[in-house]
Amino acid sequence: MKKSVILIIGIVYIVSIVIVGFFGGKMQVYNPTIYVEDISYTIQGEGVRRIELTPEAKLEQGCDDYYIVPFSGDSTTIGIKCEVIPQNATNASVEFYFNAPKNVECSYENNNASITFHEELKMVYVTIQSTDGTNLRKVLKLLSSPRQ
User: Fold this and answer.
1) Measuring CA to CA, which residue among 88, 81, 93, 90 is closest to residue 136?
2) What residues does 41 pair with on adjacent strands?
3) First to last CA, the chain
4) Omega into 86 within 30° of 0, i.e. cis?
5) Which of 4, 50, 94, 103 shows its CA 20 to 30 Å from the CA of 86?
6) What's the pLDDT at 56?
7) What radius of gyration do the chain's Cα atoms show?
8) Which tops the pLDDT comparison, 72 or 137?
9) Is 42 within 8 Å of 138 (Cβ atoms)?
10) Residue 97 has pLDDT above 70, yes or no
11) Rounded to an integer, what is the distance from CA 20 to the centroid of its chain?
């Protein structure tokens, strides 16, 4: 009787180790949510110049980056192409918000924006914001100026 009890306890112990090792080794998460960590963008337009800002100037200007857009002719159009980092983020889309005066047309679609200036010396603020709930944003300040 003693040997059978010890044998049964040993078998149960070995079987429990095998079961825990097989089913409870580690918890796996399927389809994890990957959040946006940063937003990168490129300005597409002829002669567009980026003005370097100090951290103090960024606070004063209320923007992350400042660009001078050369105005020529009746209108000047620039594009903004955005990508999120990492590229495999679960929700890799962004939204654009424009603060623009009249005579400036702004539109966006699929992480790309288009801004058309119809007059010089017009200022546009563009806010690019992630839509995955992290609310990461970049604020750009664009000024149309006479071509030099």
Assistant:
1) 93
2) 82
3) 102
4) yes
5) 50
6) 87
7) 28
8) 137
9) no
10) yes
11) 41
- What is the rounded CA–CA span in Å between residue 102 and residue 42? 24
Structure tokens of 74? Answer: 């009746």
Q: Is the pLDDT of residue 116 over 80?
A: yes
Q: Which two tokens stand for residue 57?
A: 């100037």
Q: What is the mean pLDDT of residues 98-108?
A: 91
Dist CA 115 CA 62 (whole Å): 20
> Could you say which DSSP state residue 148 is in?
-
- Contact present, 146 and 107 (Cβ < 8 Å): no
Tokens at 15, concatenated: 């079987």
Q: Identify each DSSP E strand in the chain by its residue range.
A: 38-44, 49-51, 65-71, 76-85, 94-99, 104-109, 112-117, 123-130, 137-146
Sheet of strand 76-85, all strands in order from the earlier edge strand to the far edge = 38-44, 76-85, 112-117, 104-109
CB 79 within 8 A of CB 116: no
What mean pLDDT is reported for the chain? 86
Return d(Cα 85, Cα 130) in angstroms, integer: 11
Are 76 and 116 in contact, with CB atoms under 8 Å apart?
Answer: yes
Q: How much is the pLDDT for 82?
A: 93
Where is 25: in which H helix or E strand? none
Query: What tokens appear for 32 in the block?
Result: 């994890």
